[in-house]
Design brief:
By secondary structure, this protein is an alpha/beta fold. It contains nine helices and ten strands. Strand 6, helix 4 and strand 7 form a beta-alpha-beta unit.
Length: about 250
């Protein structure tokens, strides 16, 4: 596949960072030299799930292009019969979390995936979140997060319309505005209390606990798909033609 690849443990040198315990062995990725600008994909066949792990904070142009290609292929059914697309945020906060060119379109396409295919998007948070990373996570249908991870909402609502739009749909306009204007910094438990996170995971447990969550969710996939699709129809996050946030 042009520009993207599945990764196996044999592709990496010794002494690298384990990121996928619980997937039938350890999938590894070098901390500073992950393929495709910090993206790794892995299929969990028995859960009908495609996992895309992101190892670098923020989104440069190559990262945006790679993710848009994957989301487009999933929406078109070219990745097989999938139930879940997991965006696994496992980056190290080595740089500011900013979005490259076409990042707004990526957010739009992730948010709209549920309208174009029976695939539920899941943000799996195993890193501290801010900026563009937090925005894309909020675009997913649901979020699960490791305990101990922090979520920074230090952003101007006028300059972060997508984040404000997603939050306002879930929390209401006043709470979303206060959250961002006050620059609140929440932990995973607080995110769950606000119903922004569906579940919390044991910190450092790796991907095994995520698999358990997906196994439970697989049994309720049809009802979850119908619910999340209805939510997106009722609250479209972006205008199709411009990619700009629609707050109404």
């Amino acid at each position: 596949m042009d520009g993207f690849q599945s990764v196996d443990i044999l592709d990496f040198d010794p002494g690298v960072l384990p990121i996928f315990p619980g997937l039938g062995g350890f999938l590894h990725a070098a901390k500073d030299h992950a393929p495709n600008e910090g993206l790794i994909e892995h299929v969990i066949a028995d859960l009908q799930t495609l996992v895309v792990t992101k190892l670098v904070a923020g989104f440069d142009d190559d990262c945006v292009e790679g993710l848009r290609r994957i989301v487009g292929e999933v929406a078109a059914g070219r990745r097989g019969s999938l139930k879940f697309l997991v965006l696994d945020f496992a980056h190290h906060m080595e740089r500011d979390s900013e979005g490259g060119a076409d990042f707004n379109r990526l957010v739009n396409e992730v948010a709209g995936l549920i309208l174009n295919s029976p695939v539920v998007s899941v943000a799996c948070v195993r890193a501290h979140m801010a900026g563009a990373d937090l925005e894309l996570a909020l675009a997913c249908n649901l979020m699960i997060a490791e305990r101990g991870r922090r979520f920074s909402f230090a952003a101007d609502p006028a300059l972060s319309l997508a984040t404000y739009g997603f939050l306002s749909h879930k929390l209401g306009f006043v709470r979303a505005e206060r959250l961002m204007e006050n620059g609140e910094n929440l932990d995973a438990g607080q995110m769950q209390d606000l119903f922004l996170a569906k579940a919390t995971l044991q910190e450092g447990a790796g991907f095994a606990e995520v698999e358990q969550f997906l196994t439970r969710s697989l049994r309720r996939h049809n009802s979850a798909y119908a619910m999340y699709r209805a939510q997106r129809i009722a609250h479209p996050a972006f205008a199709e033609d411009t990619g700009e946030a629609r707050i109404a």
